[in-house]
Each structure stands twice: as structure tokens, then as C-alpha cells.
Amino acid sequence: MPRRPAAAPTPEQVAAARGVAKWYLERYHGTADDVGVVTMFADPARVGAFASPLEAIRAGEPGALFRLLVATTMFQRRQDLQIMRVLQGISAEDAAELTDIAGLRRAAQACGCPHATSLAGLIGACDLHKDDAGVGACVAAPEVRCLPKRHAVLLKRYGHFGKVPTGLAHAVIEAGADDLRALKDRCVAEAAGPAGAAEALEGALRRAWRVSDKIAAMFLSMLSNPDLSPGLSPWSDGLDWGRWVVIDSNVDLFLARVGYVGLGTYGARRAFIEALAAEIDLSQLKPGLQSYNPRVLQQALYLFMSVTNRRALDRDCSRVEGACERCPVEVAGLCGLRRC
Fold it and tell me: What pTM, to 2 d.p., does this model score?
């Protein structure tokens, strides 16, 4: 059941969410075409050299998990397909540098800039940006040739985005762990139960540059939610994985379309998705799933509302002749690809 009070959704809102969940579970759940889940980050055709073998992710191999974290952090404030093209354009050698947690930490300690040696310095004193020529630059230590300046160019985002890989490395190591698996194990061992472990792990990652509620929830749910990518959740034990729900612009579009009138905070929107999920028995829509799983419902809402992602997917119903005429009325009015 929802973990916090939320305005009760109307029957019409529940019906719309149930229809979208049914659409997603029938077409995309558990397939290689799902977007923003583990299978996508294992596909070189989609994320280039940032892809990790499914076996490595399933086993919780630390290098694969950090590569997944760096790639996940890229997916904010731009369309997914645009970020995929950026990742696809980065060479295997550069991707290896961007995702080597120990190497990033060593380079930061050795570069000669005092601001690069810690997460506090990177966040509080580093003024990384791109100059007029599009090259990584700063005022604080302009003569230093550091990796964040190089990464500002490689990642093709805002100039300060070059701090992301080094910041992630600092966040993990400064939390007292050599890698993500060790960090997770430490949180589980030291916290009082799954809820405390999940809070501690999320808090450690949230300290890093540009890791928001959304990014933390996206990454941690991929590794822990047993129904999101069945068989590919190495962290499902010991963590309260039900807390992680991803609220993005596509989910917000669904909320607007169904007349959500609650607060605009991340927590309030997440609580409303949880309240919707409490009214929808997913196990009836797809046997084998747990009846209550707000992250799976949210994934359905996200993908259904994502016009750009769906247009790129061959299995999408928008490519099937006559599918729009057969679409249930509670779903049809929400679809951005409806042709009639």
C-alpha cells in the first residue's frame, strides 16, 4: 500500500492508469525494446560502449554497475533518443575512462587542482564550464588539465556536466566503499532494515553532482525492483525497493492529462502514482507480477506518453493499421500518436 497519504485518485484516473498498464505489460514489459530499464543499458545499439553484458549486471559486477550509473545520469533534461546518440558517439576508450571509478579518483587526486580532489570541492568551488570555443574551462584553476574539463566536451551536455563521472566516483569512495556493490553491502549491513538501507544508499548517491530524486530512483530501481526487468535485479534483497518511483516529464504529462490537482513536489507526485498503483492489481494483468508495484505502473505511464521513444520502436501499436480504432476509450484520449 502507499507509504504516505495522498489524494484518492478518481475512478476515471484509475481506469486510465489501468488501461495504460495493460498496454505496457502486453507490448513492452520484459522485452528488449523497453526504454530506461536494464535491457536498454545492455544494448550497444542504444548506448554504445556504455553497454554492459546482461550477465555482468545480473551478477552485480561492480564495473558494470558503475558504467550503468554514469550512463543513467546522462538521461535528464533531454529526450532519451538524443542522449542515446551522445552515448553512441563516445568511443570505447573514452567510455572506459568515464566509467572507471578508481581511475577517476586517481586522476582527480593527481591533476593538481585542489577543487577536484573531493566531492565538496567539486561541487562548491569548481566552476567548470565551456568557453566560447566549446572547450572545458574554469576560472578557479584555468591552467590545470583535469578530466572534468575533458569530460565536459565528451559528454556534450552543459559544461558543468563534465563533473558527473568524477563526482560519482567521489560520492561512492567518500561513503567508505571502493565500488557500488561494496557501498550497497555496507548500507544493508549497517542500517536498521531494508528501509534504512535504501535511504542510506540513496542518500550516498544523491550527494553526487547532478544525481536527483529522479536519477537515483531510476538507477536504484533498475537494480532492485524484481518486476521491472525480471531476472535482472541483483539488489532486490535487503533494500526497500518499493520507494523508488521515477517522475519525469512524460509521467507529468499523464498526470496533467488525467487532471491531477495535487502538489507539484516530487514526493506528492510519487505519492499519487503510489495511490493509483494501490488500486490496480498488476498480477491480474500479467501473472507472475506482484499485485502492487508503483514503479512498474510508472514505467507504463512513462513509455505510453513518450511519443519520441514510441516512434522509434517497431513493435509500437501506432505502426499497426487499425490499432487506433480498437484502442480502449480510457486510453485513446491520452495517446499522443493517435491517428484518428
Answer: 0.95
